[in-house]
Amino acid sequence: MSLYIGIDVGSTTLKIVLLNERGDILYKSYERHFSKVRSLTYERIAALEELIGDQKIFAAITGSAGMGISKSAKIPFVQEVFATSYGVKNHYPQTDVVVELGGEDAKIIFLKGTMEERMNSTCAGGTGAFIDQMATLLNISVDELDRLSLEATDIYPIASRCGVFAKTDINAVEELELLNSIADPSLDGIQNFTNLKSLKVVNSSFASVDNIAKLSKLEFLTLDGNGLNTIGGLEKLSNLKNAAISNNNI
After folding, report:
1. What span, in angstroms and rounded, lies between the C-alpha atoms of 56 and 22?
2. H/E segment holding residue 108
3. What is the three-class DSSP state of 140?
4. Sequential DSSP letters for 2-39
5. CA-to-CA distance for 151 and 146, rounded, in angstroms?
6. Helix (H, G, I), strand (E, B), or coil: what is residue 98?
7. pTM of the model
8. In this predicted model, what pLDDT tens digit does every residue of 1-57 receive, in sequence order?
9. 12 near 44, Cβ under 8 Å?
10. What are residue 224's DSSP bridge partners?
């Protein structure tokens, strides 16, 4: 019996899959390589020794950071667009379009008719690296950011094509509303919105205003139904013109 190993070394992550002749997945991994692409790839392949045994194997490498490993190890390299389109056509033949958000670029592959690919290669806007930056800015995990996005009710216009401009747009937000959300107990991350002038937090479970007190440009503040026991620290907001604070435990 023969086994097949697929190795995808992307700009930020390493993906490995081991298949049998029927296409059954015997092993798979997905993890960040933190630029240690060669050592981590070697470690993960070496860990498959027990599963592989003395069986014949076929291997191929793809991904933006896979070319060097492919040449060094003399393993065939498959360009990632072709690898993606081949896999999708075989497993999801009804697919018309593939949208791939990589670590540092985004691609759209049109499969019907003559295959066509378009890529945002000039910037990381909308890619995995950008999503990571936004999660860091809000001081939450990527999984939490994903969950919150599904509950969002407002859409803020940002320069989505460029990660730098998008981050600038988010930092420049002057009005923000958090309604009926389960927030961090300290509302950690809000202090990163340094240009915020108006903040409304309603029916959101948090217990401390310490991070709100760091918003030096804040002029209008509404805190309603959040279970607050104290608002000590808000006196530091020298630009505050109006504060509506009700239905708490004060």
Report:
1. 15
2. strand 106-110
3. coil
4. EEEEEEEE-SSEEEEEEE-TT--EEEEEEEE-TT-HHH
5. 9
6. strand
7. 0.66
8. 799 999 999 988 999 999 999 999 999 999 989 899 999 999 999 999 999 999 999
9. no
10. 202, 246
